[in-house]
Design goal:
The chain is of the alpha+beta class. The chain has 2 domains: 7-154, Fructose-1,6-Bisphosphatase, Chain A, domain 1, CATH 3.30.540.10; 165-266, D-Maltodextrin-Binding Protein, domain 2 (3-Layer(aba) Sandwich), CATH 3.40.190. The protein has 8 helices and 14 strands. The protein has a 7-stranded mixed sheet with strand order 3-4-5-6-7-8-9, sandwiched between helices. Strands 12-14-13 form a 3-stranded antiparallel sheet. Strands 1-2 form a two-stranded antiparallel sheet. Helix 3 (73-77) links the parallel strand 3 (70-72) and strand 4 (88-96). The longest helix is centred in the first third of the chain and has 23 residues, at 7-29. The radius of gyration is 17 Å and the shape is globular.
Amino acid sequence: MVEWLTPAVLEQVATICREAGAVIMPHFEAEGMAFENKDDARRSQVTEADTEAEALILPALAALNPAIPIVAEEEVAAGRVPDISGGEFWLVDPLDGTKEFIKKIPEFTVNIGLIRNGRPVLGVVYSPAGNDLYAGCEVLGQAWQERDGQARAPLSVRPVDAGGITICLSRTYGQSVELSHFLERFTVEKQVDAGSSIKFCLIARGEADVYPRYGGSMEWDTAAAHAVLNAAGGRVCGINDGPELRYGKKEFRNPYFVAWGGPEIGAA
């Protein structure tokens, strides 16, 4: 098979994310926020920004390679699920962190990830409110960030500090018994609460060490940031040192997982 993934493709995906962010921001900045509740297990919400951003992303990705199917959050919600048996497909969350978005908390992202045989091999995460973009592709050996107005810089996880770790937790989900037991394994120096895929990106840029997820999530929530973190030297695996998180599962639901930074942290 001819390798179609090139640095130009990664740049184009980054551009698509930025363009989707430009569609989203006027909704975020407007007064009031209309939304609908989805009929799903997570009682999630959808806004006009979600649907408009996804409408921009889908044809743009199809233009990159028409042979690659696209699994997108709002398309799946509408019952439109492509055949992914070929093993390679896009996973798209046009607006990750809708709860934060509705509450006017600037911690939402545009997520685009590429899956090959169950693994995320390319990902771009864009935070429109902060104008921060994170990109990673193991195939190309690239992991970089472009933060608001700053020059492009490499991404890399950090070594573990002997004095304690920085842990990322979801702003939406409270602390559970399982999470409390997990935290007993470590000396926690600092806790950072954040929404959307930003938690993965904090680890990828060396500002945090671990993100345990004891709560529901979907594959489009994690694929892009998982690829970025992998390319930056981290990993995402099941609870209790389980295998790497895989993609293309039934109904695209994730099990509980942990995103790790430096290799020493997972061995703690």
